[in-house]
Amino acid sequence: MEKSEIRRKSKKVISAIIRHGILASVAFTCIFPLIWMFSSSLKTQQSILTDMSLVPAHPQFSNFVTAWTEGNFGSYFLNSVIYTAGVVLGVLLIASLAAYAFARLQFPGKTFLFYMFLSTIMIPVPGAIVAIYVLIMKLGLVNTRLGYILPQINGSLAVALFILKPFFERIPVELEDAARIDGCGRIGIWWNVLIPLAKPALAVVALFTAITVWNEFILAQLILQDQSLMPLTKGLLTFWGGRLAQDHLLMAGATITVIPIILAYIILQKHIIAGATAGAVKG
Amino acid sequence: MNSIANGILTRLARFRASVLSNYLFILPALAMFLTFNVYPFYKVLNMSFFHWNGIDLGGGTFAGLANYKEALLEDHTWWYSIRNAAIITVLALTLQNFLALVLAWIVDRGIKGGQFYRSVFFLPPILSGVVVGLVWNWIFRGDAGLLNNVLDKLGMSGWAHAWFSDIRTALLSLAVVHMWKGFGWGFMILLAGLQGIPRELYEAARVDGANEFGIFWKITVPLMIPVFALVSVLTILGTMQLYDLVVVTTMGGPSGHTEVPMFTIIRELTENHRFGYAASLGVVFGFILVFVSLIQLQLAKRVKAE
To answer: Which of A18, A30, A116, A246 is the mutation pick for testing B, counting most B CBs within 10 A?
Structure first.
């Protein structure tokens, strides 16, 4: 009796060790490359090729200053912020107006139009990038901020609608009545009632969009050739092939690129995971 | 009489005006949709029947099916790039999703620190592909790479080489990095699926004397088939359209061994200035993706029915 009890317990312990072992080793491989990146960013051009220690003896925090100024990462960073802010604001404004209409207002063709928007996230059109590039060319928007922002607003609209419309529908209609009695029109109700109540959903959309834009690369590759307009992703590539190309500074640039994402993730994880999975599950 | 008719008419007019103005709320979204979805869809089809260098004002010369003939029959690089992406996709569908399922299964059964693991596994998916590529480049490089250093320390220096520029390992190394970046997605969706399965089902089976493996096979797997299908389709679409990682690690090299479809399309566009041909590649590729996804969903439906 006691023996079988001990055996059962030890079996449980072994199984726990194996399970933790699997999870922990995978978790280690997830984090380690990032630590290695950061550690490399603190070495010198000489020591980076020979010093394989994780914590360099003389951490060169000045690498970040060099990357930020001479490496142009300050300017790339600012550009990334501008693009992210521009696209997020555009998506929030356009998608929340449309979501309000789809959730509350009546007009012919409503269902059809809604599914038409959603279809864009379910049907892959990899060739569209070719035509979007041609379109941006024809509009004279190659190498402009607007030419980089507009297609990305469209890119996130469908997912935003997909998240916002059901959220708006769940807000009780009675809450709008008070505003209506106060003489609010549709715009007033949208702005004064729905937008404040939909803040959690809007936050999810904003974060989802922000991460997508921050990491975007292929459009930047096509549309932005001017170094002063490049976001961090394209800036990294340019720096990599450029005159100042040095691995420790490259790793500093890479660290600068991921820090905002990691910080946001640590603080706002729940919203980010919610938005990302909604974006993935879509249909 | 007249006044009643007038009243109806003004009401009708008011109603019309308000319905029409309801459209104003979706107008910006609709304008975006028409400009960046409908027009490109039309334009890419249209362009694929022309030879155009992107500069000539007329939009080039009519090519008939010449672009498609080249894309489907003559361009071996193109099909090689599809083959490469397909290999990585098969690896991702099997290895990556298997790993994701095992991890999700363990976390779903309840384990200390499950929340922590969840957060960590989802970290690579939200990072920029460019950064991920650069960091792994740095780990895999031939001269001072971390991996070679570790192999050296383990007395396996014979294994050390330039992982991304050796023909034998380039594609596989690319696949490893891609799967590293992607498994967190599968993990998150599979975990959500697992957590949706009512616990009573497990308990009932346990009371009936089923072991863990039997429970997994008889209860979890059948209920998870729609989720498996979803993850598979997302894996296929995501992997086949791989681009960022390739640009920063191998650039399609050595000699085309890691060339992938999006890379070929963008090169035809930006370097060779063959806009019509790039468009036809895009159309062919789009058909392949839709076709494969439909097969995948159909298979899942059939398996579920049985």
So the answer is: A30
